Amino acid sequence: MSELNHTPLYAFHQDNGGKMVPFAGYEMPVQYPMGVKKEHEHTRSACGLFDVSHMGQVLVHGANVAEALETLLPADIVGLEQGRQRYSLMTNDSGGILDDLMVVNAGDHFYLVVNAACKEQDIAHLRTGLGNDYRVEELDRGLLALQGPKAEAVMHRLCPAACDLVFMEHARFEIDGIPVWVSRSGYTGEDGFEISVPADACDTLARRLCEEEEVEPIGLGARDSLRLEAGLCLYGHDIDTTTTPVEASLIWAVGKPRRRDGERPGGFPGADVILHQIEARDHARKRVGLMGEGRAPVREGAELFDADGQAIGQVTSGSFGPSVGHPVAMGYVSVEYAEAGNSVHAEVRGRKLPMKIAKMPFVTPGYRRG
Amino acid sequence: MSTIPSNLRYTDSHEWVLDNGDGTATLGITDHAQEALGDVVFVELPEVGRELETGEEFGVIESVKAASDLYSPLTGEVVEINDALEDAPEAINESPYEDGWVAKVQLSDREQLESLLDADAYSRIVEAEQE
């Protein structure tokens, strides 16, 4: 097994009693002494601090960079205003998803945040796809997520100007003299901020944030149950190269100007497949939310059946949702079963447990839309 | 360091056994096991009347992280189960040796209790795991 990488917060995790596990090539805290469930609940009621420094942070420089990025991404990038962030996908020629990412218009360049496990491949894909006229620069920066209903109050004490941002806005500030790039976004369904910080100042900033009484460090375990309740996909589980954006219920990530009747139709990898599916709706399966009626968690890999015992799909992520109070999951089912309210059964240890197709998110988001 | 009461017997799969002195024994999972599992969200209990063989799976404990099988430390018949765990599975975390008990078994052979680990032997297993 190859050596695991450390984020700039390795010492911080150890000092806080983090239980370290391998994740996407990094040694990361799955939980702290508080435990997954309490960490989850703390983030929903107060404020959690997450180390997401393992994710890839990339700058793309060059003339007409928005137009160039649209050759690789199906999002409306040209229409993304300066200081705004947008969720996007990298697609392949068959319409599958290579990664999901955040894209920020930072003025004369774009700032991208990609998944840790995909970052090398993503950077190579960007370099090949954009060609020599564009510079793709991987940054050595830490990334912190401050999430929860009290995140704004905490931020107000440290960096009041950042509280003027609304959901999916991005700007640069200083906190205690540390230059930070702040987005009002996250992966929990709560209001919050994602803070990019120079690697050598990441530890100082994390410890400073934890001095605030509302803030507790939160591990990957709670990060997963929080994002699941928020209905957000985990790359490699809920979406991958075998799922198209249409099958993944991510049509909204294909910008209106990029569709057949838009101003700049197609022009991204797999556009023929994806745009055809958007129009014809002839895809066979669809990503849906699932809520269990009992208490037994239904986990990734569980097979789904209809009332007659016919196999109709599979769970791609699942857990007990501490804030929902029921097992929650997402998975793919044949499109004829995809309507919310339909009853299905999930097989767990040889038993068929009743579940209902449910609208996502499972919790009401706390996003500050302004 | 987890609690390991001296009056109980143990298995290397982290179950505990209390000799009730009347031919029955009460079973549960140890403090060390609940710590390792994390927050318990669901317990699948055996049915009353089921005959258990030593080493047989007789239930499942699910935490937010993972599912973990329960293995019977003894041979005997399930005579009582802790129904309260269906609504309050967190009792396994909060009180693994009391409120978090799982099942009571009528023993086929009381002598079998002697073959289980005592607290000292179980402590050494836990210490070895933590190294």
UniProtKB/TrEMBL annotation, chain A:
<dbReference type="InterPro" id="IPR013977">
    <property type="entry name" value="GcvT_C"/>
</dbReference>
<dbReference type="GO" id="GO:0032259">
    <property type="term" value="P:methylation"/>
</dbReference>
<dbReference type="Pfam" id="PF01571">
    <property type="entry name" value="GCV_T"/>
</dbReference>
<dbReference type="InterPro" id="IPR029043">
    <property type="entry name" value="GcvT/YgfZ_C"/>
</dbReference>
<keyword id="KW-0809">Transit peptide</keyword>
<dbReference type="GO" id="GO:0004047">
    <property type="term" value="F:aminomethyltransferase activity"/>
</dbReference>
<feature type="domain" description="Aminomethyltransferase C-terminal">
    <location>
        <begin position="285"/>
        <end position="363"/>
    </location>
</feature>
<dbReference type="Pfam" id="PF08669">
    <property type="entry name" value="GCV_T_C"/>
</dbReference>
<feature type="domain" description="GCVT N-terminal">
    <location>
        <begin position="9"/>
        <end position="255"/>
    </location>
</feature>
<dbReference type="InterPro" id="IPR027266">
    <property type="entry name" value="TrmE/GcvT-like"/>
</dbReference>
<protein>
    <recommendedName>
        <fullName>aminomethyltransferase</fullName>
        <ecNumber>2.1.2.10</ecNumber>
    </recommendedName>
</protein>
<dbReference type="InterPro" id="IPR006223">
    <property type="entry name" value="GcvT"/>
</dbReference>
<comment type="similarity">
    <text>Belongs to the GcvT family.</text>
</comment>
<keyword id="KW-0489">Methyltransferase</keyword>
<dbReference type="InterPro" id="IPR028896">
    <property type="entry name" value="GcvT/YgfZ/DmdA"/>
</dbReference>
<dbReference type="InterPro" id="IPR006222">
    <property type="entry name" value="GCVT_N"/>
</dbReference>
<dbReference type="GO" id="GO:0006546">
    <property type="term" value="P:glycine catabolic process"/>
</dbReference>
<feature type="binding site">
    <location>
        <position position="194"/>
    </location>
    <ligand>
        <name>substrate</name>
    </ligand>
</feature>
<keyword id="KW-0032">Aminotransferase</keyword>
<dbReference type="GO" id="GO:0008483">
    <property type="term" value="F:transaminase activity"/>
</dbReference>
<keyword id="KW-0808">Transferase</keyword>
<dbReference type="GO" id="GO:0005960">
    <property type="term" value="C:glycine cleavage complex"/>
</dbReference>
UniProtKB/TrEMBL annotation, chain B:
<protein>
    <recommendedName>
        <fullName>Glycine cleavage system H protein</fullName>
    </recommendedName>
</protein>
<dbReference type="GO" id="GO:0005960">
    <property type="term" value="C:glycine cleavage complex"/>
</dbReference>
<comment type="subunit">
    <text>The glycine cleavage system is composed of four proteins: P, T, L and H.</text>
</comment>
<dbReference type="InterPro" id="IPR033753">
    <property type="entry name" value="GCV_H/Fam206"/>
</dbReference>
<dbReference type="InterPro" id="IPR000089">
    <property type="entry name" value="Biotin_lipoyl"/>
</dbReference>
<dbReference type="GO" id="GO:0005829">
    <property type="term" value="C:cytosol"/>
</dbReference>
<feature type="modified residue" description="N6-lipoyllysine">
    <location>
        <position position="65"/>
    </location>
</feature>
<dbReference type="InterPro" id="IPR017453">
    <property type="entry name" value="GCV_H_sub"/>
</dbReference>
<dbReference type="GO" id="GO:0019464">
    <property type="term" value="P:glycine decarboxylation via glycine cleavage system"/>
</dbReference>
<feature type="domain" description="Lipoyl-binding">
    <location>
        <begin position="24"/>
        <end position="106"/>
    </location>
</feature>
<dbReference type="GO" id="GO:0009249">
    <property type="term" value="P:protein lipoylation"/>
</dbReference>
<dbReference type="InterPro" id="IPR011053">
    <property type="entry name" value="Single_hybrid_motif"/>
</dbReference>
<keyword id="KW-0450">Lipoyl</keyword>
<dbReference type="InterPro" id="IPR003016">
    <property type="entry name" value="2-oxoA_DH_lipoyl-BS"/>
</dbReference>
<comment type="similarity">
    <text>Belongs to the GcvH family.</text>
</comment>
<dbReference type="InterPro" id="IPR002930">
    <property type="entry name" value="GCV_H"/>
</dbReference>
<dbReference type="Pfam" id="PF01597">
    <property type="entry name" value="GCV_H"/>
</dbReference>
<comment type="function">
    <text>The glycine cleavage system catalyzes the degradation of glycine. The H protein shuttles the methylamine group of glycine from the P protein to the T protein.</text>
</comment>
